[in-house]
Write a structure and sequence with these properties.
single chain; 115 residues; mainly beta; four-stranded antiparallel beta sheet; 52% strand
């Protein structure tokens, strides 16, 4: 059974930084495209960032230039470095792994940006 475990969320002031991490249990991690999604209260879940098996990245317009997604295939982890955080970044952040028809989710980690 595959497990994705997120960590690194918390409370941060506007303008601050957080680094989220996701540890994955599958042995063929390097074959999965990895994603970070977020869901704010009362809103739909949205894609934040994506990193392909080859390391190419894509970002939502709202986080471009502030967030950086990266993966470490040797450690089976994917990270999201979040800088210049804004109150509108407040959400539960989820790690997702995709490979063909396989789709796995973590339990989420809360990020709150507030003064």
């Amino acid at each position: 059974q595959v497990h994705l475990v997120e960590s690194g969320g918390g409370l941060v002031q506007p303008g601050g930084s957080l680094r989220l991490s996701c540890a994955a249990s599958m042995s063929d991690f390097r074959m999965y495209t990895m994603y970070w999604y977020r869901q704010a209260p009362g809103k739909q879940r949205e894609l934040v960032a994506r990193v392909s098996t080859g390391g190419s990245t894509n970002y939502a317009d709202s986080v471009k230039g502030r967030f950086t997604i990266s993966r470490d295939n040797a450690k089976n982890t994917v990270s999201l470095q979040m800088n210049s955080l804004k109150p509108e970044d407040t959400a539960v952040y989820y790690c997702n792994a995709g490979l063909y028809n396989l789709d796995y989710w973590g339990q989420g980690t809360q990020v709150t940006v507030s003064s």
